[in-house]
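In response to reviewer comment 3 from the previous cycle, which asked for concrete evidence that the modeling workflow produces usable outputs, we include below a single protein chain processed end to end. The sequence was submitted unchanged, and the resulting structure tokens are shown without manual editing.
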Amino acid sequence: MNTNISNFFSKISKYPEEVQFYFESKSLVIAVADLAEKYNLAAGSLNELMLDLAVDDFDLAKLPKKIESKFFSAVGEKQGDLLRDFFGVLLLPLSAFLKNVNIKQEFAKIGGHEDEYAIYLEEFNNELEEELLDALDEYMDEYEKTIDLKSEASASLELFSFNFVDVIKSSSSETLSSLNAGLIYLLNHQADFKDELVKRLVTNQERLTASNINIDGKAVEPSIANWIKDFIQKNGSSYFNNISLTEYLTNSENTKQLSGQERTLLGDVFETYRNLKFFPQSMEALPAHKWAIVPHNRPEQKKASLAKRVEVIKKNENVPLITEEKKEQTRAEELKKMSESFPPNSLERRAIEQEIASLNK
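The workflow returned the following structure tokens.
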């Protein structure tokens, strides 16, 4: 086996699954063919360069030299154009998955414009989506062979009644994924399951936080039921977005006493309540493979403390208040500033970015 290929197979397994899939995708084959045809290059040579980059940890600082040494005789003075096209056609689809490599930033440095290559991102994202949906279908097919609707529903109701705190404290993505798959299946296949599960959650008497909270001027147990009651009193019973949730976690009198861990747990309770109470509306903005009732989008090793995010809001006096009366353009600008107060990929930042996107439609 060629040494470079051998090194590639050794290295590729260490990258995210999306990156691994890209190197097997039809999208990459088509993209390479397009680039090869435009510059009259051998597709194999472009593939070799992609393998070389993967083996070399996608060290983009070395890419100009690699292109010059490999293709100068073929493209001559057009190597600058080839470099930009290589970024746009072959590398941009990986930009969301290579966390330690800022492809978009390096692309901008050489004068690249992402919108000129949007079709290549779209093609790969669509293919990835189809692959994930196929995998989900296979999983659900296997799941249907083993599931006992009655016992599964009973176990879920028990969890939401008496053991929900343990559920949201779980750091096991596998456990939560399995639970969510079961919940979504039951929501789609068992009549009245949703209403009963909501009822179990909003009447759950498990103690969620350490100190009592104040409702209607009285100190009460900080149970899941009482926290949800307080939230509904402050925000109403209609659908709420992540901005409203963050404002409650930040500004409510009852939340000011909470530790960072308690805020995170409380946020997970409210997200679960929303995802369940307003299902399937709560899932409309997400592809099917990302549906979840109990949130697990903040893995423990990457979880940014919700307490720190709240502190950012409190300290950032320049973040403007968002009001419905302001013009949409001004609102979008304010939301953009607000989003920058949160870490990239955080729940709040993604929520605000979705809001901006809806305004710009």
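The chain is about 65% helix and 0% strand. We consider this sufficient to address the reviewer's concern, and the full set will be provided in the supplementary archive.
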